Amino acid sequence: MSYLKENLESVKEQIKASCEKSKRDPEDVTLIAVSKTKSEDMIKEIYDCGVRDFGENYVQELSQKMEDLPDDIRWHMIGHLQTNKIKYIIDKVYMIHSVDTLHLAEAIGKEAVKRGKVVKCLLEVNVALEDTKFGFNSDNIEENFEKIKNIEGIDVWGLMTSAPYVENPEENRQYFVQLRALMVDLKDKGLYNKEKFLLSMGMTNDYNVAVEEGADFVRIGTAIFGARNYN
């Protein structure tokens, strides 16, 4: 599967080029290899190339891979999370990117306190207002951010979005600009007091533009692993 290494190197080079274009340090961008539906052998090959951050969408699949793969992998939950599945991953994932309702945040906090944990989270914003996507919107993110950051057991680090699937990545630049503007506004209003906030945005079709607009995490699956197999 040497093509995986080649794919990975190509993605890294493009991230580097986008950082140079926007005068950013490539070290500030974390590549999350989205490994949903991919075999453990494929994940291990990418791991052996030095990648330590992997993203999964489904709790059952994530739980199984956690059991079988190296302990130093940082697993990111990037898919829609149901409240009844929280207990299976709460003390195992590095970060939950997809906190999309106040109810879910409260459930995560409750389970985290029960386990004596503090969970790193990002709040998902449906910036493009797509009917098929989950998340807060630009109008209600402020009030929900303020409530969620005060929930015991949760440590909010920033925002996440999934932009529409487009052929031309430039079409999604507006959504990445909006997400960053939302985060800057939250910080300016004193709702976020950490020195650095994190933005999770950009996937295979648009990660170059996302990096140019300030992405700290890019979530890339197809460009590394190839098309997904849902069988």
Strand content is: 15-25%
What is the first-to-last residue Cα distance? 20 Å
* Number of structural domains: 1
Q: What's the CATH C level?
A: Alpha Beta
Number of strands: 8
CATH topology: TIM Barrel
Question: Mind describing the biggest β-sheet?
Answer: 8 strands, parallel
Structural class category: alpha/beta
Biggest sheet: strands side by side, in what order? Answer: 7-6-5-4-3-2-1-8
Written account of the structure:
The chain is an alpha/beta fold. It has a single domain, classed as TIM Barrel, CATH 3.20.20.10. The chain has an 8-stranded parallel sheet with strand order 7-6-5-4-3-2-1-8. The longest helix has 20 residues. The protein is globular and about 45 Å long. The two termini are 20 Å apart. 41% of the residues are buried.
Topology:
Layout: H1 2-21, E1 30-34, H2 40-48, E2 53-56, H3 59-68, E3 74-77, H4 86-89, E4 95-99, H5 102-115, E5 119-124, H6 141-148, E6 154-160, H7 173-188, E7 198-200, H8 207-212, E8 217-220, H9 222-225
Parallel strand pairs: 1-2, 1-8, 2-3, 3-4, 4-5, 5-6, 6-7
Using brief descriptors, characterize the structure shown.
single chain; 231 residues; alpha/beta; TIM Barrel; 8-stranded parallel β-sheet; 39% helix; globular
In short:
The chain is 39% helix and 16% strand. With 231 residues, the protein is α/β, with parallel strands linked by helices.
